[in-house]
Amino acid sequence: SLDAMSVEVERKFVCTPDIQEKLREIGAVCFGQHEFEDKYFDSPEYHLTLRDVWLRCRQGSWELKCPTQEDGQGREEESGDMSLLTRYREITRLPEIIAKVREVMKQECTEYKHLRQTEEGVKDSKLGVKSTNECISDEGDQSWLRQLNLVPFAAFTTKRCSYTLKEEGQECGVRVDLDQVDFGFCVGEIEVLVPDGGEMKLALEQIERTAQSLGLSGEKRVPGKMDAYLQRYCPEHYKQLLDAKIL
Ligand code: V4E
User: Which pLDDT does position 66 carry in this prediction?
Assistant: First the structure.
């Protein structure tokens, strides 16, 4: 995404063999096919992902996906197809990513302080040693990862076909991605990027309409690339995320 802070509203769907034909029928235009590698990072204790925070490096570009403030407030009434939608704030500027990661790790420290070992307390106190600016003064320097005790937990390559669907009179278009990952898994995504302060309701309606015109109503929650990856390669991490109701 180009915005430094925007909300990605997304609905995943199961790819059927006729999906490309259906996309053509509803006027979706394929605007490119590309391949990229994603590497995801977390602390060994999964401080980030257990809070539904996802730090990744895609072809050298960093991105942090975090739950939006609205999540958990007023979403309980959402039922049926609406519950298939996910909303994440996407942060793409490195200083902001680092600040947010620090904040999330501190939250965890405060809430679980009484359960913590002395050793972890010492480690936590190191988080604030260097200023954000010092950490990223050298381009390509990834000392901030070490300082925050972040290690890779997943890496995979995706082949993506991207489609756009521009409805008449609408500012931002709907995008549909068909993803195929290197460990043998496919998933489709309908998404709208809502810029900071943009209209959320419109995005939700656009996604709903697109899903319906693709004949996708009545599906249950669809596992994404990460679900499939963790289930296969990191069963312990996967179980913790299921138990925490993150996945
Ligand atoms: C947010 C999230 C994860 C990180 C990967 O996010 P996703 O949008 O699935 O990846 P991708 O490659 O399509 O990113 P893009 O190219 O659009 O930037 S892994 C799990 N989650 C949470 C999550 C969830 N709980 N439920 C659903 C349906 N999706 C994601």
Answer: 97
∠40-163-203 over CA atoms, to 5°? 80
How far CA 91 is from CA of 1, 99, 158, in Å, comes to 9, 11, 21
Distance from residue 3's CA to the centre of ligand 1 (Å): 18
pTM listed for this prediction: 0.84
Q: Residue 89 is part of a domain; what is its CATH number?
A: 2.40.320.10
- Please tell me the total count of domains within the chain: 1
Q: Write out the residue range of the structural domain in which residue 136 sits.
A: 5-243
Tell me which of 54, 78, 183 to substitute to probe ligand 1's pocket, judged by most ligand atoms within 8 Å of the beta carbon: 54
Residue that wins the pLDDT comparison between 196 and 147: 147
The number of beta carbons lying within 10 Å of the beta carbon of residue 185 is 19
Q: pLDDT band at residue 196, thresholds of 50, 70 and 90? A: confident
How many percent of the chain have pLDDT more than 70?
Answer: 77
